[in-house]
Amino acid sequence: MSRSVFHEALRHLALLLILFAVLSPLLWLLLTAFKPYGELFNNPPTILPEAATLVNFTEGWEIGGGKGIMDSLIVSSISTLICLILGFPAAYALARRFPPHGQLSFTILSLRMMPPIVPVIGFYLLFQELALFDTYTGLIIVYTFMNLPLVIWLLAEFMRQIPKSYEEAARVDGATWFQLFRDVLLPLSLPGVLTAGILAMIFAWNEFLFALVLTGDAVITLPKALASFFLFQQPNWGQLGAIGIVAFGPLLLLSYYMQRLLIRSFSIELGGR
């Protein structure tokens, strides 16, 4: 065996070990989701379920996991959509009218750096006065406030890479501002839109503090629902594993699909230049 082949084999072995270390918690979570309650406490623990069951999925969904997933899906998807709608024109103005390393860009991004504990009490008092406590609307407003600065900053960085000559050519051809955004800016900045949307969706999906303080029993997001499994009952690890897999699966598929779309978008953009 030549030295180059040996080094290549070592490299692949190292990658496999790293992949196993990264995926082993998810694999254990998946196996736990299919174990019956009594098997969860075997000593020594079993790796593969001896009597696989789907009871954990149905019971975990009924005791609060289903509502947590649906509520998280509602508030995270709507807030992400609002962030993209508001952030796209704001990012265009920031990219075209202000220098890339100016104070305004840093000020917008610094709003995202604010610790959540700082505004949460103010939001709580304000929502009590405006009857927004424990409502979807209130949580959507908070998540939009939380993620909009990041969306604007990311989209502005992508738009700065779009040559102004494309816009000038569209204007010479008689394109309106709406046609300019729809037919020129949006397709060219699609990788940035997807990246910002994925990040905003993930941040909203995983957020816990705002959901804990600003909601009661009417709105229960997934992180809050999972926490309630520990607070109000003896934790059933099988149910936690089942709900965790159900909650993690859509994000994994979304990230995988968007990754392929990102690569294709970059290829189209680079090929057109």
Automatic annotation (TrEMBL):
Belongs to the binding-protein-dependent transport system permease family. It is found in: Cell membrane. PROSITE patterns: ABC_TM1. It comes from Pseudohoeflea suaedae. Keywords: Cell membrane, Membrane, Transmembrane, Transmembrane helix, Transport. It is a multi-pass membrane protein. InterPro entries: BP-dep_ABC_trans_perm, MetI-like, MetI-like_sf. This is Carbohydrate ABC transporter permease. Its main location: membrane. GO terms for cellular component: plasma membrane. Pfam families: BPD_transp_1. SUPFAM superfamilies: MetI-like (SSF161098). The keyword Transmembrane applies. It comes from the Bacteria. Residues 69-258 form the ABC transmembrane type-1 domain. The keyword Transmembrane applies. The chain crosses the membrane at residues 12-34, 73-94, 106-127, 133-156, 184-205, 237-257. One of its GO terms (biological process) is transmembrane transport.
